[in-house]
Amino acid sequence: MGAKAGIDPELMIDTINKSSGRSFPTERFAAGPVLSRRFDFGFRMELMAKDMRLALQEAEALGLVMPTSRAAQMLYGLAMADGGAKGDVTELVKITEGWAGTEIAAARRNEG
Question: pLDDT tens digits, residue range 54-106?
Fold first, then answer.
């Protein structure tokens, strides 16, 4: 939402990481592989999807409802159906970028 509104993504991530919104993904995914567009966290999307499937199967066996995890599973499924199964988990952001019609990337500054 911030990138679509024209907010500098680096400023946005820095602000989030100094607030109660800070999380492992905002610190390790957004601040590195996503902003740099390297998508090199080092964990394939298909492996994350497998782990999520196993966790959700166990949750179901225990009678637990995990709607946020189910939503994440759906997003990974969409990303893999779009050819991203072998891609890095950080490439998941491309799905939401496509929906928003924008890209989250560090500002390219003219260094000269």
Answer: 999 999 999 999 999 999 999 999 999 988 889 999 999 999 899 999 999 87
User: d(Cα 92, Cα 85) in Å, to the nearest integer?
Assistant: 10
Please write down the HEC assignment for all residues of the chain. Answer: CCCCCCCCHHHHHHHHHCCCCCCHHHHHHHHHHHHHCCCCCCCEHHHHHHHHHHHHHHHHHCCCCCHHHHHHHHHHHHHHHHHHCCCEHHHHHHHHHHHHCCCCCCCCCCCC
Tokens 């893999």 sit on residue: 80
Q: Hey, where are the domains in the chain?
A: 1-42, 44-87
